[in-house]
């Protein structure tokens, strides 16, 4: 099948980065790369012909006109018309499919405003504020094109509308928590009062009163009712291979944010944690034998980029010498594992899942996660992590020492986890749940409750200030005498 040609049009100097990113993305994405071929004027070799004739002829032989509009109108010809508007008019004249993406900005040339108004009168357009949002919107638009043209009979998993689900299957509280977190991390534009439908539509996760598979996985009340293998299986082993008895085994269920939080905490709970001298630090001093950033990045990658049509689940395994994360996924077309250790563009297997994870800070810088892992490992004096593509994609993170060293001091009870120790160090007065979460840098309430608060209460290291009303909005927590004794040993 001949590929569908996309003419990317914009003021070149204003959108140089976005143009190149889109071209690279369209060629590398596992789905889009099979069907689309991008055209950038700056990639043409020199021709003995007028520039105007070349780009208009390229519009004619293209199937789709993709326009990026922003602040500047651009160079004007003798008639006062920019190349971008010329290309748009030519695409209109020749009945090309036109996709317009408008950069959200407070400043625009007067002529650019007129051009945008002209476009809005004849087309539905999509706004974007950054490269990652643009990428997600383009992905969604091109998937819709493939469906409408009946080029593909089924949509990608994350963009597919789920016939069995409705807006009632989405947790409203999760929506509110997402908006609050996304506002703080990335300046998300929607207000906390936005309803479920408005948010999902904004994120391209709903259409025609139906929600996508991605919406269920990200914000569903019970995601595993729809996708049983979306769970994460975590296990720790005493030696260097899989063998019974298994000291610790957990199967985590919930939305993707919960799966990441629970899986990361499972691993950290099994690693050695060294607490430094506290002195006057605001943050809890100390570090894990493997930096938390490496563990979190590997697990996020496994959950975000896995193949959700597979019957396999993500597996996290902790051995005496290493941590392995397996996921049923594959690298983008033409990629090998060596590319992951170099600077590379982000080509998420599930873009509609990746975008909300980016907005909430779970993915800090799309496309740099694997190289960041190498940097963190080197700084921590660890061997370089390995990436292996076989039937499953495997990430291997090596521990510093084969033998787990004693934690802090022999006087500290082994059952006291690193998370509980961190909580004990954080309590300097009577503090509420939100205050404690903030001091610990934790955003997920359930993760805080299960891995920090509840174990500390059960061990009688802390206590409630209003024990007869455990759910009171005025509830605070304080350290007990037993907790003070443990704290003195830690410090």
Descriptors for this entry?
Rossmann fold; alpha/beta; five-stranded parallel β-sheet; six-stranded mixed β-sheet; 491 residues; Heat Shock Protein 90
Protein model, in words:
The protein is of the alpha/beta class and 491 residues long. The chain has four domains: 4-148, Rossmann fold (3-Layer(aba) Sandwich); 167-225, no CATH class; 229-398, Heat Shock Protein 90 (2-Layer Sandwich), CATH 3.30.565; 418-490, Arc Repressor Mutant, subunit A (Orthogonal Bundle). Helices cover 38% and strands 14% of the residues. The protein contains 17 helices and 17 strands. Strands 9-8-12-13-15-14 form a six-stranded mixed sheet, covered by helices on one side. The protein has a five-stranded parallel sheet with strand order 2-1-3-4-5, with helices on both faces. A hairpin with a 2-residue loop joins strand 6 and strand 7. Helix 3 runs parallel beside helix 4 (83-93) and helix 14 packs across helix 16. The longest helix is centred in the N-terminal third of the chain and has 18 residues, at 131-148. The chain is elongated.
């Amino acid at each position: 099948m001949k590929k569908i040609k996309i003419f990317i049009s914009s003021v070149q100097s204003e959108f140089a980065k976005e143009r190149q990113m889109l071209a690279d993305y369209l060629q590398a994405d596992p789905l889009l790369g099979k069907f689309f071929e991008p055209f950038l004027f700056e990639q043409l070799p020199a021709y003995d012909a007028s520039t105007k004739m070349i780009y208009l002829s390229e519009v004619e032989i293209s199937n789709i006109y993709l326009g990026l509009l922003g602040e500047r109108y651009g160079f004007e010809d003798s008639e006062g018309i920019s190349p971008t508007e010329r290309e748009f008019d030519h695409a209109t004249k020749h009945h090309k499919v036109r996709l317009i993406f408008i950069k959200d900005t407070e400043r625009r040339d007067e002529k650019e405003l007129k051009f945008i108004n002209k476009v809005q009168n004849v087309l539905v357009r999509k706004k974007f504020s950054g490269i990652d949002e643009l990428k997600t919107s383009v992905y969604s638009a091109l998937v819709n094109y493939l469906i409408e043209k009946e080029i593909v009979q089924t949509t990608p998993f994350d963009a597919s509308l789920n016939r069995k689900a409705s807006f009632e299957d989405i947790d409203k509280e999760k929506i509110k928590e997402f908006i609050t977190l996304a506002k703080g991390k990335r300046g998300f534009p929607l207000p906390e009062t936005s309803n479920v439908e408005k948010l999902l539509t904004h994120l391209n996760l709903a259409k025609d009163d139906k929600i996508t598979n991605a919406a269920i996985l990200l914000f569903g009340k019970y995601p595993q009712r729809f996708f049983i293998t979306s769970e994460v299986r975590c296990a720790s082993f005493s030696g260097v291979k899989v063998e019974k008895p298994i000291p610790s085994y957990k199967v985590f269920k919930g939305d993707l944010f919960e799966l990441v939080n629970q899986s990361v905490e499972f691993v950290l709970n099994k690693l050695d944690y060294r607490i430094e001298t506290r002195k006057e630090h605001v943050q809890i001093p100390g570090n894990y034998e493997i930096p938390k950033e490496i563990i979190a990045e590997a697990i996020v990658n496994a959950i975000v980029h896995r193949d959700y049509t597979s019957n396999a689940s993500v597996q996290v395994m902790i051995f005496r010498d290493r941590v392995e994360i397996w996921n049923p996924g594959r690298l983008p077309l033409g990629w090998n594992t060596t590319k992951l250790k170099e600077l590379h563009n982000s080509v998420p297997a599930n873009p509609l899942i990746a975008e909300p994870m980016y907005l909430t800070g779970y993915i800090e810088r799309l496309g740099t996660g694997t190289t960041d892992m190498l940097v963190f490992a080197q700084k921590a004096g660890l061997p370089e992590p390995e990436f292996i593509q076989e039937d499953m994609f495997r990430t291997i993170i090596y521990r510093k020492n084969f033998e787990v060293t004693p934690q802090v001091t022999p006087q500290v009870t082994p059952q006291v986890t690193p998370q509980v120790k961190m909580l004990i160090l954080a309590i300097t007065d009577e503090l509420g749940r939100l205050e404690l979460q903030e001091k610990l840098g934790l955003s997920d309430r359930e993760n805080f409750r299960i891995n920090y608060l509840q174990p500390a209460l059960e061990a009688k290291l802390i206590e409630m200030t209003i024990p007869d009303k455990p759910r009171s909005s005025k509830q605070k927590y304080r350290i007990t005498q037993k907790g003070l004794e443990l704290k003195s040993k830690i410090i």
